[in-house]
Prior knowledge:
Blueprint: H1 11-25, E1 40-42, E2 46-47, E3 52-56, E4 59-66, E5 69-75, E6 83-89, E7 98-108, E8 111-119, E9 129-135, E10 144-149, E11 165-173, E12 176-183, E13 196-204, E14 207-216, E15 231-239, E16 242-249, E17 258-264, E18 277-284, E19 291-300, E20 307-314, E21 323-332, E22 338-339, E23 349-351
Antiparallel strand pairs: 1-23, 2-21, 3-4, 4-5, 5-6, 7-8, 8-9, 9-10, 11-12, 12-13, 13-14, 15-16, 16-17, 17-18, 19-20, 20-21, 21-22
Amino acid sequence: MSDQFHFVKNSTIILSLALIFAASTACGKEKKQSPQGYTTFTNPVWDGADPWLVKHNNEYIYCYSANNSIFIFRSEKMTKLGEIKKIWTAPATGWNRACVWAPEIHFVADRWYVYYAAGQSGPPFIHQRTGVLRSKTEDVFSDYEDMGVLYTGDDPADPNSNVWAIDMTIFEHKGKLYSIWSGWIKQETTDATQQHLYISEMENPWTMKGKRVKLSSPAESWETGGPLNLNEGPEILKKGNNVFVIYSCRESWLVEYRQGMLQLINPEGNLLDPANWKKTGPVFLGNPQVYGVGHCSFVKSPDDTEDWIIYHSKKSTKPGWERDVRMQPFQWNSDGTPDFGAAIPAGKSIQLPSGEK
Length: 357
């Protein structure tokens, strides 16, 4: 997840603590804001990690996991969580009975689809796979059905050869549907395993099409150097014909956690060709006041005039997974790439998203 939990030494103890943190803080108390009539807000906006916020029509949908369940908030405001509903709880048995991490919700055609990671048990967290839920109507608060596990290995003809996968996101491009996620090269017996970014075309929102392709590995100097180098939390950002993958790298439990970027070189070309993607980074970093920024989502302001990045950061400099959620506007460079600027410290006033009353 970027809310996944890894460490090289004493991983079982540390990872157990991490799961407790994730369950208890996945979306905790909303932070106190200014009185009625306010025009600004301050970060952090609420407790939690791996924030997935999406705008649909005139509502903002926030999706998160806690206690092996998945919840949805919907609100007319970006900075307020609004009405809540639990849409799914992990079954008592099966591949997805434990360790529910980092869900995302996407609207495709006339249904909502939730992509989440889960496993049989943990720690160690060696069983994580990616599952899909589908709404029964176009209402985000409708009932959801379990569409099963997605195949994220190298031999689609052999379901038993499935490979560890988390942090899946999906997107449409040129009439085709794609998924990108963080995974292992092969199944391992330890969760202290390097993670890579993979892409696959999809037949439909719950079925992969063909083999996965590895897009990125932690190889650059700015995404390596720690006890366990990771590529995870990929998210799609688009502007015009430009397509970007903003992803998390380094270790999620350390202040060095940061964001890298893949840019599609030729939007008319093959998305499954790694040579058609250019890596740049880091594109968003922590600072002495904001620790370890990671796992972002992107939304427009209520009046669609501003672009905003939603992300989590660590609550302290100590290794661990106590995190909260922040948001801030960002700009675009003259070459069409995003400019996220500096992470805004807690307590500093930020103008409300344009159009939010």
